[in-house]
Design brief:
The protein has 251 residues and is mainly β. The protein is 10% helix and 63% strand. It has 2 helices and 12 strands. The chain has a 12-stranded antiparallel beta barrel. Strand 6 and strand 7 form a beta hairpin. It is globular.
Length: 251
Amino acid sequence: MGGGRGASRNLAACVAAAAFAAADARAGDAAPEREAARFDTVLFWGASTGAPGTDSADSSANIGFVTALNGDIGRSGWTITSSVGLGQTNAPLSRTKSFYSSLLVGHQWTLPGYYFSLSAGLHYRNNREHPSGSPTDGSDVGVTVQYGFDTSAVDALYLHSYGAWSTVADQVYFHLKAGRRTQRLRFGGEFTLSDDAWSRPTLRYGVFVGDIALAGPVSVTVSAGYLRHLEPGKSDGFYATAGFSMPLRLR
């Protein structure tokens, strides 16, 4: 059962990671200097690692895209989001490898100063656990519902929130960023809660810096902080994430 709980915790964090990256990418690529380009798609990819204590570690990576059906990701309208990802949990007595994917249809409302989005769709996950036989071992297909919220005012208070729920193991994910947004960067503190039917919640308290410009149109958001497990017998530790995004004009 220990391996199942570890896999479930890892998956609870990974399930929403790709869609959260999409929401975060949309937020970054709605920055004032990029609005006039009228991109229709954002490609995103990223990785996350968590090291609870010294005896175990979780890691994940994902890639996906979000595209606006009206041809402008910066305006209100319908969207399609898809992603795939891999996760791995290593513990002294167990090991789990996870694959997950999602396909969602949603709508975003872009208003002066902020945007809000709602989406729903299919969520698939497959866990390969050693030893096998826990409730989270094997494959499941379910439905997921997600929301995103982001403020866009420059040189002002910055707020960003994302949440998701999936019928696969009743996974719940909530993320909040709060800080300041300038012409070039977003920065501040963040909090994340992930939970599911087979484990106690996992909490993350950290700091972030976003909209860091790299080559061409590529930007990155990085974060790191304290990882707290409410699961009995699980040690606390640290986490670090990096999420990349690249706006595209495909149509």
